[in-house]
Amino acid sequence: MNKALLATVSIIILGLLLVSPALAAPSQGFFERGDDVYDSFGICRNRPMGEDGYLQLSEDGFDPIIVRESLGENIDVAWELGRSFADKYPERHQRARQIFYFVRNRVVYTSDMDEFGREEFAQNADELARAILENSKAAGDCEDSAILLAVIYKAAGFRSAIVLTPGHAAALVHLPDYNKAARVFTLEGEEGWVWAESTGRTNDLGWFAHSLVSEPMAARELSEETIPKKELTYRLTPIQQTSSGGGFSFGRISPFFIVVFILWLFSSIRKRPAKKLMDRQRR
């Protein structure tokens, strides 16, 4: 996104925030409960596991409920960014690439320990979008970028999903006629899902790391349903990947082993407050 477009988007969003009560500020106020940090929706930001974890990760599956802080009746700056891309780029492939470049170029990969003093801490899409509009850059790690990408894509008229591999997260965007992806993916029997990995500074839309070829993966398409107050019925969806050159795929892998590995990976959480984000909310 060039400077003129960024300025225009900022003005539009500022006007909307001033005149429209429908736009929410979804993460006003953080509080600590024991060793965990919660936002105003009651979602734990430093823990992906459990009913109140930001991914609702369990042995049966996951649901990235943090994205719903930026969807539906909670739409805010990330959604408006997505709509601005839809208005400026009517051609879908160009729009998808421009959204990808925007996130890739403006979210600087930063570990949660460096940014928040914790092994794990998730930001929602609006927090990153606000930081970008205010400072032209934002700091985040792989799940932060994936969450922002998936929300902007959905707002811009695409179907999108969050995909997990052991120790990593990315976004998927449904572009069945896109022919520049290294691999295409099948989710719930539906082909045409493109990998969106924006943490590499030279990555392009559809780039896929060879090291992930043999890794188990699970994906969940974004939904605008209200953030649930009760336990959900989880579903883990292994995804198939097929080389654009033809032929490669992997079969179903036990969801239990996928989630156990991810739970193990996220289990070491440093007990320090997420001071930077709390300080931002006090400004």
Summarize the structure.
By secondary structure, the chain is of the alpha+beta class. Helices cover about 35% and strands about 15% of the residues.
N-C termini distance: 27 Å
What are the secondary-structure elements, in order, as H or E? HEEHHEHHEHEEEEEEEHH
Strand count, sense and barrel status of the largest sheet are:
7 strands, antiparallel
Please identify the structural class as seen in this structure. alpha+beta
Q: In percent terms, what proportion of residues is strand?
A: 15-25%
Q: Work out the radius of gyration.
A: 18 Å
Number of domains: 1
Number of helices: 8
Uncertain regions: pLDDT < 50 for 5+ in a row? 8-27, 228-238, 243-257, 267-271
Question: What coarse outline follows from CA principal-axis ratios?
Answer: globular
Strand order of the largest sheet: 10-9-5-6-8-7-11
Can you describe what's shown?
This protein is α+β, with helices and mostly antiparallel strands. It has one domain. 33% of the residues lie in helices and 17% in strands. The protein has 8 helices and 11 strands. The protein has helices at 3-19, 77-88, 92-106, 112-116, 125-135, 142-155, 255-265, 275-282; strands spanning 31-33, 36-38, 107-109, 138-140, 160-165, 168-174, 183-187, 190-196, 218-221, 237-238, 240-243. It has a 7-stranded antiparallel beta sheet. A hairpin with a 2-residue loop joins strand 7 and strand 8. Helix 3 runs antiparallel to helix 6 (142-155). The longest helix is centred in the N-terminal third of the chain and has 17 residues, at 3-19.
